[in-house]
Structure formats: C-alpha cells, structure tokens
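Take a look at the protein record below and tell me what you see:
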Amino acid sequence: MPAPQTPADLSDRQKQIVARAADGLTNLELAVEFDVGVDTVKHHLSAAFRAYGVPSRARLAVRLRD
C-alpha cells in the first residue's frame, strides 16, 4: 500500500490519533485510548508526518492548528 500523500488520504483513525497527539498525548496514552499497540500509533503518526510534510509532532500540531 503506498504511503499517504495528502492529509485527505489519512484514514479516520489516523486523523483521530493525530488530533489527540496534537493535544499532547504520548504514544502510550494514545495506544491505551484507542486500544491499539504503540507500534500502531507510531505507524499512524509516521503516515501523518508524510501526509502533512512535517518532520515532528510539534510541527504536525502547528499544521493542524492553522
């Protein structure tokens, strides 16, 4: 499966995780909240970094707030 290229390509779950990550939750907190593994959270966040063209959680949060 190709990596998402735009924010619109993210799944609903990925968008939910990204939004909560922008609220400051850690990967472990996100995993517990969404009942998934930490590696799954990391995968979703990596897809979001690619989709939004940002290298970090901080920049991802800024992009979401714009």
Summary: The radius of gyration is 11 Å. The helical segments are 12-22, 27-34, 38-52, 57-65.
